Backbone:
């Protein structure tokens, strides 16, 4: 009898997180796994310090501390344009990662089909396998990363139960337009399917683009499971605070899945994060400005050293074209993964190979993130400039 399940043979560890380990080993500038190198807002740190002595060291309510859910309902109710019931329509999870997995396990039976845009955030592949779903991939076609809505309709016609929409989209930085979301939404309603959204970059969007919640569109609340997290918005990826919002029937089932997966997110961290959820709108405007500066600084740097890249509309990721390097005889036969490993050791900058995001055979793109202090980004550009000497 095999010692391990079949399921664990069908996916690898996360390449994104593996690149962080390799980067740490060689002391490279880590632009692979996306997380900030700067501190969360001071008010949240003060709240965390205070919380340490307030005795909130035991379990909170499994689906989230009451005041945390209430604050979430207020903030996200504004974005969704509707009153959210904090008792019946929210589950607080351990990061957006658990929210996605919980959503998939709540709606999928083994063999159900789920549509996933490609390139996709690599977790969705494992989410599908672990929940028993079979993915149908819908290409987002570079350079604009647009898609053929007919393929989405074909997917629903083949019986797809849901479509995952990462908006703004990791890794390609696409921000879905209202028209695109409406078109997807209409099909979800027509075929009585779900849209499972991943909106963790909702506040990292560049002018003139605007993030629109799928659940805010007419008739879509009943068909949407909104997955989100506080990680990127408040620079607290290590706090592991995420949540899902959806119609009561779905949320009641998701509460059970979550309860047996993790029981609950860390109680003191939920308490401290309420401070962030109550920030005024100016905080989010400031965040957008901070990331706009970083994006501009990094993209200008890439232009200066002649590396071809896309222009992200949202998120803190940029895709770089490495085809011209892979064409050099010395790199012959290199995969993008091998190129990234070489780059960590020889250039001192870590990236994620594009092939871990694409269903299609794509070997010439790598993903870098720019959630770093500007001086670190400058140093990374200097190092990357050495690629041109090859
Ligand atoms: N979303 C981040 C990325 O794509 C990392 C998230 C994670 O590792 N959980 O790099």
Residues:
């Amino acid at each position: 009898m095999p010692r391990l399940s079949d399921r664990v043979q069908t996916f690898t560890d996360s390449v994104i997180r593996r690149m962080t380990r390799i980067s740490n080993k060689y002391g490279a500038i880590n632009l692979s796994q996306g997380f900030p190198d700067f501190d969360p807002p001071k008010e949240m740190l003060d709240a965390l310090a205070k919380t340490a002595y307030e005795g909130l060291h035991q379990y909170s309510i499994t689906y989230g501390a009451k005041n945390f859910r209430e604050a979430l309902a207020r903030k996200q109710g504004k974005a969704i344009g509707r009153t959210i019931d904090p008792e019946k329509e929210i589950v607080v999870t351990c990061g957006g990662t658990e929210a996605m997995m919980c959503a998939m396990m709540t709606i999928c039976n083994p063999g159900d089909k789920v549509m996933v845009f490609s390139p996709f955030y690599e977790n969705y592949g494992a989410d599908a396998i672990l929940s028993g779903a079979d993915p149908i991939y819908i290409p987002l076609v570079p350079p604009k990363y647009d898609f053929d809505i007919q393929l989405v309709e074909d997917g629903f016609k083949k019986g797809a139960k849901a479509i995952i929409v990462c908006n703004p989209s990791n890794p390609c930085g696409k921000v879905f337009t209202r028209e695109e979301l409406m078109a997807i939404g209409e099909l979800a309603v027509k075929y009585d399917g779900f849209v499972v959204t991943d909106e963790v970059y909702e506040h990292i969007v560049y002018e003139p683009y605007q993030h629109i919640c799928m659940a805010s569109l007419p008739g879509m609340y009943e068909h949407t499971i909104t997955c989100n997290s506080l990680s990127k918005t408040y620079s607290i990826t290590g706090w592991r605070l995420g949540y899902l919002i959806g119609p009561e029937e779905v949320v009641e089932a998701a509460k059970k899945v979550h309860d047996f997966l993790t029981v609950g997110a860390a109680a003191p961290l939920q308490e401290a994060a309420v401070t962030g959820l109550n920030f005024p709108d100016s905080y989010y405007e400031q965040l957008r400005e901070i990331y706009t500066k970083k994006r501009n600084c990094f993209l200008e740097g890439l232009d200066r050293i002649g590396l071809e890249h896309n222009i992200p509309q949202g998120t803190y990721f940029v895709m770089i074209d490495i085809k011209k390097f892979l064409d050099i005889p010395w790199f012959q036969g290199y995969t993008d993964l091998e190129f990234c490993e070489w780059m960590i050791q020889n250039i001192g900058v870590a990236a994620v190979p594009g092939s871990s995001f694409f269903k299609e055979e794509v070997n010439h793109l790598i993903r870098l993130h720019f959630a770093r202090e500007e001086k670190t980004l400058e140093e990374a550009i200097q190092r990357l400039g050495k690629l041109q000497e090859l």
